[in-house]
Design a protein that fits this description.
Layout lengths: L11 H5 L5 H4 L5 E3 L4 E3 L7 E7 L2 E6 L5 E7 L4 E2 L13 E4 L4 E7 H10 L1 H27 L2 H16 E3 L6 E4 L4 H7 L4 H13 L3 E3 L3 E4 L5
Antiparallel strand pairs: 1-8, 2-7, 3-6, 3-8, 4-5, 4-7, 9-10, 10-12, 11-12
Helix pairs in contact: 3-4, 6-7
């Protein structure tokens, strides 16, 4: 798996968390959050980046009308708040825990800069990771602006297949074991949960896929 949210098959938590480094281990602690707790708000000072040890985190912002716009839902091993590395002084988004047992590894911006300065290869990988992440967010924005809901769902399923899918040897189907709820998926493609459920049933009736709570199977003939 080589995706936007992970780089080169590496779980970022295992690579970056300060408790892995002797110089930072003694002074480092984890932060825990319950469901709907905010890790940070819009306009908060951007002085840390974060890695998810366990749980899920929603990244988004609020429109002028007060509507919540979800940019991403991240899971174990993923990084967020990374624009602080690039000089962002205040947050332009919020980060909120989606589960009751979310554990976060915080890294100070200066600590991150020190790690990047001391290892040029590592620094390159971080910038590559950030660039790819921005590219994926831009693509998702284009989908929201220019594609109908059903097309957005199908393309989102293709992304899920890249991130969480595998080929079933017996049938040739693509099986996706993903961490998202239907509410998560609806938020990410800019629709309601009832509409998402209707579209999934339509695709099922069209013999494009079958689905359950944690698994989606895209049939071989639909690929």
């Amino acid at each position: 798996m080589n995706t936007i949210w992970f780089f080169e098959d590496v779980n970022l938590f295992k690579v970056l968390c300060p408790h892995k480094f002797k110089a930072y281990k003694k002074s480092h602690s984890f932060n825990t959050f319950k469901k709907k707790d905010y890790i940070y708000f819009e306009e908060d000072a951007a002085n840390k980046i974060y890695l998810i040890e366990k749980g899920k985190v929603k990244i988004g912002y609020y429109s002028e009308d007060g509507e919540e716009v979800v940019k991403a839902i991240l899971t174990k091993g993923e990084l967020f708040g990374e624009k602080a590395i690039l000089g962002e002084s205040k947050r332009d988004e919020f980060a909120q825990s989606v589960e009751n047992t979310t554990s976060i590894c915080p890294i100070g911006v200066q600590t991150m800069h020190d790690l990047m300065r001391d290892n040029q290869t590592f620094s390159f990988k971080i910038y590559k990771f950030i660039g790819l992440k921005f590219k994926k967010l831009e693509r998702r924005l284009q989908l929201l602006l220019f594609k109908d809901t059903k097309t957005r769902l199908i393309e989102f399923l293709e992304e899920l297949c890249e991130d969480y899918g595998y080929d079933c040897a017996k049938t040739g189907d693509h099986v996706i074991k993903h961490p998202y709820t239907q509410k998560d998926m609806a938020s990410l493609i800019g629709t309601s949960r009832p509409t998402l459920n209707i579209l999934l049933k339509e695709l099922k009736d069209e013999s494009y896929l079958d689905f359950s709570r944690k698994e989606i199977r895209i049939y071989k003939k639909a690929i």
